[in-house]
Amino acid sequence: MASPPTGRLTVITGPSGVGKGTLVNQLLQRHPEIWLSISATTRLPRTGEADGVQYLFLSRDDFEQRVATGGFLEWAEFAGNLYGTPRQPVEAKLAEGRPVLLEIELEGARQVRQSFPAAFQLFLKPPSLAELERRIRGRGTDSEEAIVRRLERARVELAAEAEFDAALINGDLHGALEVLEQLMGLTTAIDT
Ligand code: ADP
Ligand code: 5GP
What we know:
It is built from 7 helices and 9 strands; from the N terminus they run βαβββαββαβαβααβα. The protein is of the alpha/beta class and about 190 residues long. Strand 5 and strand 6 form a beta hairpin. The mean pLDDT is about 95. Guanosine-5'-monophosphate binds near residues 83, 107 and 108.
């Protein structure tokens, strides 16, 4: 009997502020067939973020309850908050044959490597640490304490680049988007 269709799973990881969200937004605009997983987090919403859109915002108790019942495909603590990928929707979309994208940090990517060894794992890099700091500060969404924690964590994440299937420098955004499309094997509309 033929097996059911399964979509391809892609994981994008990279230090906070490198531009993952920005790049993924552009990718989704050009490729609406891709389904982006909405993560759960215990961090507070930033200005402009809404529950169920950027994240499912959960209390620590609710998050831990979901961990206990196996509700997450992966989860990790990052800069003092918990983040996790709800399992059920990802499995459902893959079973439908949709390409699925996870935008998650290093520990989560490592867990997915165990559970989905066939997933394509991409590491997004900044042109330099100084540019990374400029982007985090320029975003204007994090407290000084959060910025320091994110930059400390960035050094750890950057040292893990070799674990990934490919690494991509997010210098010029449009150029990075085109390389990302090539790496994911996506055909693109011709730019005018
Ligand atoms: P992440 O999701 O990795 O934390 P964001 O997408 O929030 O990062 O981007 C962090 C900041 O960097 C934002 O202000 C964004 O506009 C900016 N940014 C993203 N990509 C680029 C780029 N290629 N060149 C310059 N600035 C960028
Ligand atoms: P932010 O607070 O800036 O939105 O996200 C902080 C970090 O958490 C980013 O590196 C982001 O990729 C990561 N992240 C977001 N969702 C998840 C998730 O579901 N699981 C894991 N492991 N990391 C996540």
